[in-house]
Amino acid sequence: MPVLGTGIIPSGALGAELTALTRRAFIPKLIVQIYQATPLLSALMANAQMASGGVSAVTVPIQGSAFVTTQASDYTGTFNQPQVTNGATNAEFNLKLIVTPIPFLGMEGAVQINAAVVPIVEARMNDAGNSATDYLATKLFNNATDGLDIVGLPGAVDDTGTYGNVDGSANAYWRAKVYSESPAVDPTRDQMLKYIAGTALNSGGEMPNFGVLSLGTWVKLAQDFTSQEQYRITPDSSFDQSPNGARALFTALMVAGVPIYADPYMSDGEAYFLNTNYTSFYIHDDAAFAFTGFESTLPNFQIGYIGALLTILEFVVTKRKANTFVEGLNSVTL
Protein backbone atom coordinates (compact mmCIF):
# COMPACT_ATOMS: atom_id res chain seq x y z
CA MET A 1 0.00 0.00 0.00
CA PRO A 2 1.27 3.50 -0.82
CA VAL A 3 2.17 5.82 2.04
CA LEU A 4 0.05 9.01 1.92
CA GLY A 5 0.25 12.20 3.95
CA THR A 6 4.02 12.26 4.55
CA GLY A 7 6.74 14.23 2.84
CA ILE A 8 5.63 15.73 -0.47
CA ILE A 9 2.74 13.26 -0.93
CA PRO A 10 -0.68 14.60 0.14
CA SER A 11 -3.31 12.59 2.01
CA GLY A 12 -7.01 12.03 1.38
CA ALA A 13 -8.69 12.08 -2.01
CA LEU A 14 -5.88 14.12 -3.56
CA GLY A 15 -3.31 11.58 -2.48
CA ALA A 16 -5.47 8.70 -3.76
CA GLU A 17 -5.85 10.42 -7.14
CA LEU A 18 -2.11 11.03 -7.34
CA THR A 19 -1.46 7.38 -6.55
CA ALA A 20 -3.83 6.20 -9.28
CA LEU A 21 -2.24 8.43 -11.92
CA THR A 22 1.44 8.18 -11.00
CA ARG A 23 3.96 5.38 -11.38
CA ARG A 24 6.04 4.33 -8.40
CA ALA A 25 9.82 4.68 -8.36
CA PHE A 26 11.19 1.23 -7.43
CA ILE A 27 14.69 0.37 -6.34
CA PRO A 28 15.40 -2.60 -8.67
CA LYS A 29 16.91 -4.71 -5.89
CA LEU A 30 15.44 -7.21 -3.46
CA ILE A 31 16.98 -6.53 -0.05
CA VAL A 32 17.24 -9.76 1.97
CA GLN A 33 16.22 -9.37 5.62
CA ILE A 34 16.03 -12.89 7.05
CA TYR A 35 19.42 -14.65 6.88
CA GLN A 36 22.64 -14.41 8.87
CA ALA A 37 26.31 -14.56 7.97
CA THR A 38 28.20 -17.49 9.48
CA PRO A 39 32.01 -17.45 9.57
CA LEU A 40 32.27 -21.10 10.63
CA LEU A 41 30.14 -22.43 7.76
CA SER A 42 32.15 -20.30 5.32
CA ALA A 43 35.42 -21.68 6.67
CA LEU A 44 34.20 -25.27 6.48
CA MET A 45 32.87 -24.79 2.95
CA ALA A 46 36.21 -23.30 1.90
CA ASN A 47 37.91 -26.39 3.34
CA ALA A 48 35.40 -28.83 1.82
CA GLN A 49 36.53 -32.17 0.43
CA MET A 50 34.92 -34.03 -2.45
CA ALA A 51 33.19 -37.39 -2.03
CA SER A 52 31.51 -39.82 -4.42
CA GLY A 53 28.86 -42.51 -4.16
CA GLY A 54 28.75 -45.76 -2.26
CA VAL A 55 27.65 -46.96 1.16
CA SER A 56 29.63 -45.19 3.90
CA ALA A 57 30.84 -42.78 1.23
CA VAL A 58 33.30 -41.23 3.68
CA THR A 59 35.30 -43.99 5.36
CA VAL A 60 38.32 -42.98 7.41
CA PRO A 61 40.76 -45.56 8.85
CA ILE A 62 41.62 -44.46 12.40
CA GLN A 63 44.23 -45.87 14.77
CA GLY A 64 43.01 -46.28 18.33
CA SER A 65 45.77 -48.45 19.86
CA ALA A 66 49.37 -49.46 19.20
CA PHE A 67 50.28 -51.98 16.49
CA VAL A 68 53.63 -52.83 18.11
CA THR A 69 55.21 -52.75 21.59
CA THR A 70 58.60 -51.18 22.29
CA GLN A 71 60.78 -52.85 24.94
CA ALA A 72 64.28 -52.68 26.40
CA SER A 73 66.94 -55.29 25.78
CA ASP A 74 70.43 -56.17 27.07
CA TYR A 75 73.80 -57.18 25.66
CA THR A 76 72.33 -60.31 24.08
CA GLY A 77 69.81 -58.36 22.09
CA THR A 78 66.95 -60.67 22.99
CA PHE A 79 63.37 -59.50 23.17
CA ASN A 80 59.93 -60.86 23.89
CA GLN A 81 57.96 -62.43 21.10
CA PRO A 82 55.79 -59.70 19.51
CA GLN A 83 52.02 -60.06 19.55
CA VAL A 84 49.84 -59.11 16.60
CA THR A 85 47.41 -56.48 17.88
CA ASN A 86 44.37 -54.87 16.34
CA GLY A 87 45.11 -51.15 16.26
CA ALA A 88 42.85 -49.77 13.54
CA THR A 89 39.18 -49.46 12.77
CA ASN A 90 37.05 -47.48 10.34
CA ALA A 91 35.06 -44.35 11.07
CA GLU A 92 32.21 -44.40 8.58
CA PHE A 93 29.88 -41.64 7.46
CA ASN A 94 26.95 -41.59 5.05
CA LEU A 95 26.24 -38.49 2.97
CA LYS A 96 23.01 -36.57 3.60
CA LEU A 97 20.71 -34.94 1.05
CA ILE A 98 19.12 -31.51 1.37
CA VAL A 99 16.64 -30.35 -1.26
CA THR A 100 15.40 -26.84 -1.96
CA PRO A 101 12.41 -26.94 -4.38
CA ILE A 102 11.99 -23.90 -6.66
CA PRO A 103 8.50 -23.36 -8.13
CA PHE A 104 7.68 -21.13 -11.10
CA LEU A 105 4.03 -20.68 -12.07
CA GLY A 106 3.34 -20.18 -15.75
CA MET A 107 1.19 -17.11 -15.19
CA GLU A 108 3.96 -15.47 -13.13
CA GLY A 109 6.06 -15.46 -16.30
CA ALA A 110 3.22 -14.12 -18.40
CA VAL A 111 2.55 -11.26 -15.96
CA GLN A 112 6.19 -10.33 -15.36
CA ILE A 113 7.56 -10.53 -18.90
CA ASN A 114 8.89 -7.09 -19.91
CA ALA A 115 7.34 -5.63 -16.74
CA ALA A 116 9.33 -7.08 -13.84
CA VAL A 117 11.05 -4.83 -11.31
CA VAL A 118 12.62 -7.92 -9.74
CA PRO A 119 12.06 -11.16 -11.74
CA ILE A 120 10.49 -13.50 -9.21
CA VAL A 121 12.21 -16.57 -10.65
CA GLU A 122 15.60 -14.87 -10.13
CA ALA A 123 14.60 -13.99 -6.56
CA ARG A 124 13.71 -17.63 -5.88
CA MET A 125 16.92 -18.91 -7.46
CA ASN A 126 18.97 -16.54 -5.30
CA ASP A 127 16.94 -17.47 -2.23
CA ALA A 128 17.52 -21.17 -2.83
CA GLY A 129 21.23 -20.80 -2.14
CA ASN A 130 20.57 -18.64 0.91
CA SER A 131 17.96 -21.07 2.24
CA ALA A 132 20.26 -24.07 1.79
CA THR A 133 23.20 -22.45 3.58
CA ASP A 134 20.95 -21.20 6.39
CA TYR A 135 19.57 -24.71 6.82
CA LEU A 136 23.07 -26.18 6.93
CA ALA A 137 24.28 -23.58 9.44
CA THR A 138 21.30 -24.24 11.70
CA LYS A 139 21.91 -28.00 11.67
CA LEU A 140 25.67 -27.51 12.05
CA PHE A 141 25.20 -25.76 15.39
CA ASN A 142 22.19 -27.69 16.70
CA ASN A 143 21.89 -31.25 15.43
CA ALA A 144 23.45 -34.10 17.42
CA THR A 145 21.53 -37.00 15.83
CA ASP A 146 22.74 -39.12 12.92
CA GLY A 147 19.57 -39.33 10.86
CA LEU A 148 18.48 -37.58 7.67
CA ASP A 149 20.29 -34.34 8.57
CA ILE A 150 24.01 -33.70 8.81
CA VAL A 151 25.50 -34.42 12.23
CA GLY A 152 26.46 -31.02 13.61
CA LEU A 153 28.95 -29.86 16.19
CA PRO A 154 26.90 -31.12 19.19
CA GLY A 155 27.26 -34.70 17.92
CA ALA A 156 30.72 -34.49 16.37
CA VAL A 157 32.50 -32.57 19.15
CA ASP A 158 31.45 -34.52 22.23
CA ASP A 159 33.00 -36.91 24.74
CA THR A 160 30.24 -39.54 24.60
CA GLY A 161 28.02 -41.28 22.10
CA THR A 162 28.58 -43.07 18.84
CA TYR A 163 29.93 -40.94 16.01
CA GLY A 164 31.06 -42.24 12.65
CA ASN A 165 29.94 -45.72 13.75
CA VAL A 166 32.60 -45.67 16.52
CA ASP A 167 31.47 -45.66 20.16
CA GLY A 168 33.09 -42.79 22.00
CA SER A 169 31.91 -44.09 25.36
CA ALA A 170 33.89 -47.33 24.87
CA ASN A 171 36.92 -45.80 23.12
CA ALA A 172 38.80 -43.05 24.95
CA TYR A 173 40.66 -42.02 21.79
CA TRP A 174 37.31 -41.06 20.17
CA ARG A 175 36.33 -38.35 22.64
CA ALA A 176 36.51 -34.61 22.25
CA LYS A 177 37.48 -32.46 25.22
CA VAL A 178 34.42 -31.01 26.99
CA TYR A 179 34.47 -28.29 29.65
CA SER A 180 31.31 -27.64 31.66
CA GLU A 181 31.98 -24.60 33.85
CA SER A 182 29.81 -24.38 36.97
CA PRO A 183 29.40 -21.75 38.21
CA ALA A 184 29.76 -19.80 34.98
CA VAL A 185 33.06 -18.02 34.34
CA ASP A 186 34.06 -14.98 32.30
CA PRO A 187 35.66 -15.78 28.91
CA THR A 188 39.00 -14.07 29.63
CA ARG A 189 42.25 -14.60 27.75
CA ASP A 190 43.46 -16.81 30.59
CA GLN A 191 40.33 -18.96 30.29
CA MET A 192 40.73 -19.24 26.51
CA LEU A 193 44.36 -20.25 27.00
CA LYS A 194 43.22 -22.99 29.38
CA TYR A 195 40.87 -24.42 26.73
CA ILE A 196 43.46 -24.15 23.97
CA ALA A 197 46.10 -25.88 26.10
CA GLY A 198 43.55 -28.49 27.18
CA THR A 199 42.78 -29.23 23.53
CA ALA A 200 46.49 -29.66 22.78
CA LEU A 201 46.91 -31.97 25.78
CA ASN A 202 43.88 -34.07 24.84
CA SER A 203 44.95 -34.39 21.19
CA GLY A 204 48.56 -35.33 21.84
CA GLY A 205 50.06 -31.88 21.37
CA GLU A 206 48.13 -30.48 18.39
CA MET A 207 46.80 -26.96 18.88
CA PRO A 208 43.37 -25.97 17.58
CA ASN A 209 43.52 -23.42 14.78
CA PHE A 210 40.04 -21.92 14.98
CA GLY A 211 37.80 -20.79 17.84
CA VAL A 212 34.19 -19.65 17.63
CA LEU A 213 31.92 -17.90 20.15
CA SER A 214 28.52 -16.27 20.05
CA LEU A 215 28.55 -12.51 19.53
CA GLY A 216 27.58 -11.89 23.17
CA THR A 217 30.30 -14.19 24.50
CA TRP A 218 32.82 -12.79 22.02
CA VAL A 219 32.14 -9.23 23.23
CA LYS A 220 32.65 -10.41 26.82
CA LEU A 221 36.05 -11.81 25.77
CA ALA A 222 36.87 -8.61 23.88
CA GLN A 223 36.42 -6.61 27.08
CA ASP A 224 39.45 -8.41 28.48
CA PHE A 225 41.48 -7.08 25.53
CA THR A 226 40.16 -3.51 25.51
CA SER A 227 41.83 -2.38 28.73
CA GLN A 228 45.21 -3.50 27.37
CA GLU A 229 45.06 -1.51 24.15
CA GLN A 230 47.69 1.11 23.51
CA TYR A 231 47.79 3.83 20.88
CA ARG A 232 51.13 4.98 19.51
CA ILE A 233 51.48 8.17 17.55
CA THR A 234 54.31 8.72 15.09
CA PRO A 235 56.38 11.79 16.12
CA ASP A 236 55.16 15.01 14.50
CA SER A 237 51.95 13.22 13.48
CA SER A 238 48.42 12.67 14.81
CA PHE A 239 45.42 10.41 14.24
CA ASP A 240 43.62 13.06 12.19
CA GLN A 241 46.34 12.72 9.51
CA SER A 242 45.49 9.04 9.02
CA PRO A 243 42.62 8.39 6.59
CA ASN A 244 41.40 5.51 8.75
CA GLY A 245 41.88 7.12 12.15
CA ALA A 246 42.86 5.08 15.19
CA ARG A 247 42.15 1.36 15.05
CA ALA A 248 40.49 -0.28 18.05
CA LEU A 249 39.95 -3.98 18.70
CA PHE A 250 40.06 -6.63 15.98
CA THR A 251 37.83 -8.75 13.77
CA ALA A 252 39.32 -11.89 15.33
CA LEU A 253 40.63 -12.04 18.88
CA MET A 254 43.95 -13.90 18.92
CA VAL A 255 44.85 -16.03 21.94
CA ALA A 256 48.06 -18.10 21.86
CA GLY A 257 48.07 -17.83 18.07
CA VAL A 258 44.49 -19.14 17.74
CA PRO A 259 41.99 -16.71 16.12
CA ILE A 260 38.61 -16.64 17.86
CA TYR A 261 35.67 -15.48 15.75
CA ALA A 262 32.07 -14.52 16.49
CA ASP A 263 29.26 -16.46 14.83
CA PRO A 264 25.58 -15.42 15.13
CA TYR A 265 24.43 -19.06 15.08
CA MET A 266 26.35 -19.92 18.25
CA SER A 267 24.49 -20.08 21.56
CA ASP A 268 25.57 -17.65 24.26
CA GLY A 269 27.85 -19.12 26.89
CA GLU A 270 29.39 -21.75 24.60
CA ALA A 271 32.63 -22.07 22.64
CA TYR A 272 34.16 -24.45 20.14
CA PHE A 273 37.87 -24.85 19.49
CA LEU A 274 38.41 -26.74 16.25
CA ASN A 275 41.27 -28.16 14.24
CA THR A 276 40.37 -27.78 10.58
CA ASN A 277 42.98 -30.39 9.59
CA TYR A 278 40.42 -32.93 10.80
CA THR A 279 37.18 -30.97 10.37
CA SER A 280 35.44 -30.28 7.07
CA PHE A 281 32.44 -30.86 4.87
CA TYR A 282 32.52 -33.77 2.45
CA ILE A 283 30.38 -32.91 -0.58
CA HIS A 284 29.31 -35.26 -3.38
CA ASP A 285 31.14 -34.26 -6.55
CA ASP A 286 27.93 -34.52 -8.62
CA ALA A 287 25.65 -32.70 -6.15
CA ALA A 288 27.51 -29.70 -4.84
CA PHE A 289 24.61 -27.20 -4.81
CA ALA A 290 23.53 -28.59 -8.18
CA PHE A 291 20.42 -27.32 -9.97
CA THR A 292 18.23 -29.96 -11.58
CA GLY A 293 16.79 -27.64 -14.21
CA PHE A 294 13.12 -26.76 -14.58
CA GLU A 295 10.58 -29.42 -15.51
CA SER A 296 6.96 -28.85 -16.52
CA THR A 297 4.19 -29.40 -13.98
CA LEU A 298 1.66 -30.26 -16.73
CA PRO A 299 1.54 -33.94 -15.62
CA ASN A 300 0.08 -32.57 -12.38
CA PHE A 301 -2.54 -30.61 -14.36
CA GLN A 302 -0.88 -27.25 -13.68
CA ILE A 303 0.76 -24.75 -16.01
CA GLY A 304 4.19 -24.05 -14.57
CA TYR A 305 7.61 -25.43 -13.82
CA ILE A 306 9.52 -26.78 -10.84
CA GLY A 307 13.23 -27.28 -10.20
CA ALA A 308 15.36 -28.12 -7.19
CA LEU A 309 18.72 -27.23 -5.71
CA LEU A 310 20.40 -30.43 -4.48
CA THR A 311 23.27 -30.83 -2.05
CA ILE A 312 24.63 -34.17 -0.86
CA LEU A 313 27.14 -33.82 1.92
CA GLU A 314 28.14 -34.57 5.51
CA PHE A 315 30.01 -32.69 8.20
CA VAL A 316 32.93 -34.93 9.19
CA VAL A 317 35.37 -34.80 12.10
CA THR A 318 38.08 -37.42 11.59
CA LYS A 319 39.91 -36.80 14.89
CA ARG A 320 37.40 -36.03 17.61
CA LYS A 321 39.98 -35.47 20.36
CA ALA A 322 41.57 -32.58 18.42
CA ASN A 323 38.48 -30.44 19.12
CA THR A 324 36.95 -28.95 22.27
CA PHE A 325 33.51 -27.83 23.40
CA VAL A 326 33.00 -25.38 26.29
CA GLU A 327 29.79 -24.45 28.09
CA GLY A 328 29.19 -22.26 31.09
CA LEU A 329 30.70 -18.95 29.92
CA ASN A 330 29.31 -15.53 30.80
CA SER A 331 28.07 -13.33 27.97
CA VAL A 332 27.07 -9.75 27.28
CA THR A 333 23.40 -9.15 26.47
CA LEU A 334 23.22 -7.51 23.04
In short:
This protein has 334 residues and is α+β, with helices and mostly antiparallel strands. The chain is built from seven helices and 16 strands.
How are the SSEs ordered, and which strands pair?
Layout: H1 12-21, H2 39-46, E1 49-51, E2 58-63, E3 88-93, E4 96-105, H3 106-112, H4 120-142, H5 153-156, E5 162-163, E6 166-167, E7 177-185, H6 189-202, E8 210-213, H7 215-226, E9 253-255, E10 258-262, E11 270-274, E12 279-284, E13 290-291, E14 295-296, E15 304-317, E16 324-329
Parallel strand pairs: 1-12, 7-16, 8-10
Antiparallel strand pairs: 2-3, 4-15, 5-6, 8-11, 9-10, 11-16, 12-15, 13-15, 14-15
Entry keywords:
alpha+beta; six-stranded mixed β-sheet; 7 helices
Please provide a written account of the structure:
By secondary structure, the chain is α+β, with helices and mostly antiparallel strands. 23% of the residues lie in helices and 25% in strands. The protein contains seven helices and 16 strands. The protein has helices at 12-21, 39-46, 106-112, 120-142, 153-156, 189-202, 215-226; strands at 49-51, 58-63, 88-93, 96-105, 162-163, 166-167, 177-185, 210-213, 253-255, 258-262, 270-274, 279-284, 290-291, 295-296, 304-317, 324-329. The strands form four sheets. Strands 1, 4, 12, 13, 14 and 15 form a six-stranded mixed β-sheet that branches. Strands 7-16-11-8-10-9 form a six-stranded mixed β-sheet. A hairpin with a 2-residue loop joins strand 9 and strand 10. The two termini are 34 Å apart. The model has no long low-confidence stretch (mean pLDDT 89).
